[in-house]
Amino acid sequence: MNASAAVIRDATHADLGAVAAIYAHYVTETVATFEEIPPTDDDWARRLTELTGRGLPFLVAEVPEDTGLTVAGYAYAGPWRPKPAYRHTVEDSIYLAPGRTGAGLGAALLDALLARCATAGVRQVVAVIADTGSDASAALHRRFGFTPAGRLAGVGRKHGRWIDTHLMQRDLTTGASGAF
C-alpha cells in the first residue's frame, strides 16, 4: 500500500469502531500507550465530540481495499494540560492498524494533523513517546521538525515493566511545514 493512495479526512462517528479496534491492539499488546483497558466506542464518541468541539483535529487515514475504503490509522490533537494557560499547546496521538506501518501513513497523518493544528491556532505540539524499544515514532516526529524536550524515567508500568517516555516538541509559529 502506498500512502499516496490514502485519503486523510476528518473522522466521523462511523469511523470510531475501526479507531477503537486499532487502539485496542496497542492497549492490550504493547507499551506504546499506558492505557490498560481499551476505550469503548462510546468513549471514542465522547473524545471525538470533545476534541472537535474545541476546534481540534481528529483525522483518519483510509486506504483502498477490495471491498472499498478501510480506516488504516488515525491521528488527533488533544489538550496538553487542562489549565487554561496551556490552551494553545496540544499533544498529538497517531496510531496505525497492525500491518500498516512503514508505508508512509504515519507521515501523511502527521503532516495533515500539523497543518490542521496550525489553522486551529495551536502554537506548540508535544509528542509523548513511550520507550517501546523502537525509534519509529521518534524518527517520524524528527522528520517533521520535532526536537527532544526531555525524558521521564520509569513513569509508567505495564506488562510487568517500567517504561520511560520521551518528550518531543514542535513550534508551529516558525512557519516550517511538511517533512524536513
UniProtKB/TrEMBL annotation:
InterPro entries: Acyl_CoA_acyltransferase, GNAT_dom. Residues 6-173 form the N-acetyltransferase domain. It holds the Pfam family Acetyltransf_4. SUPFAM superfamilies: Acyl-CoA N-acyltransferases (Nat) (SSF55729). It comes from the Bacteria. PANTHER family: ACYLTRANSFERASE FABY-RELATED (PTHR43072:SF8), N-ACETYLTRANSFERASE (PTHR43072). This is GNAT family N-acetyltransferase. It comes from Streptomyces luomodiensis.
